[in-house]
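Box 3.1 A note on notation
Throughout this textbook, protein chains are presented in two layers. The first layer is the amino acid sequence; the second is a token string describing backbone geometry. Keep the layers aligned when reading.
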Amino acid sequence: MSDEKMSFFSHLEELRKRILISLAAIGIGFMVTFNYSETILRVLKRPLTTDLIFSRTYPFLRSAPRPGPPVELFFLAPAEAFWMHMKIAIFAGLLLVLPVVLYQIWKFIAPGLLAHEKRYALLFVVLSTIFFFCGLLFCFYFVLPFALNFLLTYKTENLKPMISIGNYMDFTTKFLLGFGLVFELPMGIGAAAKMGLVTPQFLAKNRKYAILAVFTIAAILTPTPDFFNQTLMAVPMYLLYEVGILAARMLVRKPAVTSQEATEGV
């Protein structure tokens, strides 16, 4: 019993250590990015001022300035603008040190892995970072302009938008982080299949439940309750589920048939 208690407390100590290192890294990232918060804000306002244009010729999809007067952002409380810059710096600082945070996650789970599985540390950090930033870019360049254009133009002919900077930042960062996490789905499915928790056959057989699950998760992650924005997240999530099935099939190899088994089969 004492060994179990010591093991439990050692896990807590390890978790505390990894959390402290991650927080310290985010703090350093915050100090680096705070001075550039105004530049980052100008970048984050881009989906508010551009539209996605589809065409039948190359490049098929491009962004263009949104027609009409530009949508302005306001702050409605004395401290709102200041806290907005703080949130931007925390968000950008997290992105800056994301590989460090992911490595700390790996170091926490590594003691429970087999020796040959620990070799995937670098691959886990690199691929997780790539998938996360792919989710951010997909959301920033495709989903956010489309969603904002719909929300600002649907039945608003007699209305004038007056968006506070705090509400806009909450909306934008939740969407970006949500898609960043969603794009980690193939990594999660592949890791679960590699550890034997699920099989590609099980995943393929339960597609209908996956569809229900992705719409439920999208309803939780999207910052607005409307079905339109939930669909914008749910459809890519289901496509990533299919990518996860392919990853699981590549990672899970069928056991080799022994000569004795082959003889018995004959």
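Residues 2-34 form the longest helix (33 residues). The radius of gyration is 23 Å.
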